[in-house]
Q: What sequence folds into this?
C-alpha cells in the first residue's frame, strides 16, 4: 500500500527557494515531495530526547519503543553549526512524535519550526492520521552537510534519508504496511535553520525541501 503526501508550499518558502538552491547547488527541475509508504513518516529511538541548551524547557519528542530514529551525523566543531544540526534533528523527532501521538496540532513540532516548516509537519501528520496509520521500524538519516549562508545568520542543513526499514502500521487492524527497498526508499532533505532570537537558544527550521528518489543517497 502506498500513499503520497504533498509538500506544503507557502509564500515564505518561495521567498527563500532561490537561496536554498544556490546554497545547495541544486537545479529547479527537482520535485519537492515526501513519499509516504503507507507508513513512511519517521521513527525515533525511545531513548532519544531533545538535545541542545536548556533541554529541560523543551517539549517532549519521545515516541513508542518500536520506533527507532538513527542520526548518523558527525557533530561540527563550530558551536553554532552544531546547535543548528542538533535542532534540525529535533525537528525530525518532533515530526515523528506528532505522528505517533496522532496529533496534527502537537506543540512539539511547532516549537522547532517556523511557518512553512510547521505547515509541512502538520500536513504530514494529518496524512498519517487520515490514513489510520502509526509508525514503526527504523528510520535512518546520514551524510549531513552543514553550510552557513551568505547572510551570516541562517544555516542550511542537508542530509540523506533511508526509509527502507521504516514501516507503517494500521492502528485498528495492527497490520504492518511494508514495501520492498527501492529508489523510493531514499530521500534528500534540506532544512533552512533560523538562528535563535531574544533569550531563546533554539534554532528553528524555517523551510523544508524533501526530494524523493534520491540516487545520491543510495
A:
Amino acid at each position: 500500500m502506498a500513499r503520497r503526501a504533498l509538500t506544503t508550499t507557502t509564500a515564505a518558502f518561495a521567498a527563500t527557494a532561490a537561496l536554498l538552491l544556490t546554497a545547495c547547488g541544486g537545479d529547479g527541475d527537482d520535485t519537492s515531495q515526501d513519499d509516504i509508504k503507507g507508513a513512511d513518516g519517521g521513527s525515533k529511538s525511545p531513548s532519544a530526547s531533545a538535545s541542545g541548551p536548556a533541554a529541560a524547557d523543551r517539549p517532549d519528542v519521545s515516541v513508542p519503543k518500536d520506533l527507532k530514529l538513527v542520526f548518523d551525523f558527525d557533530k561540527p566543531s563550530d558551536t553554532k553549526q552544531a546547535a543548528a544540526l542538533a535542532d534540525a534533528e529535533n525537528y525530525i523527532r518532533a515530526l515523528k512524535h506528532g505522528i505517533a501521538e496522532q496529533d496534527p496540532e502537537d506543540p512539539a513540532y511547532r516549537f522547532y519550526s517556523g511557518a512553512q516548516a510547521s505547515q509541512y509537519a502538520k500536513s504530514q501528520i494529518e496524512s498519517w492520521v487520515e490514513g489510520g496509520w502509526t509508525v514503526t521500524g527504523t528510520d535512518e538519516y546520514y551524510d549531513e552537510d552543514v553550510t552557513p549562508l551568505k547572510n551570516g545568520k541562517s544555516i542550511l542543513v542537508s542530509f540523506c534519508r533511508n526509509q527502507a526499514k521504516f514501516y507503517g502500521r494500521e492502528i485498528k487492524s495492527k497490520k504492518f504496511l511494508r514495501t520492498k527497498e527501492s529508489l523510493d526508499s531514499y530521500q534528500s532533505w534540506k532544512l533552512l535553520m533560523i538562528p535563535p532570537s531574544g533569550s531563546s537558544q533554539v534554532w528553528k527550521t524555517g523551510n523544508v525541501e524533501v526530494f524523493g528518489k534520491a540516487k545520491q543517497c543510495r
The longest strand covers residues 133-148. Helices lie at 11-24, 79-101, 107-111, 115-131. Residues 79-101 form the longest helix (23 residues). The chain has four helices and nine strands.
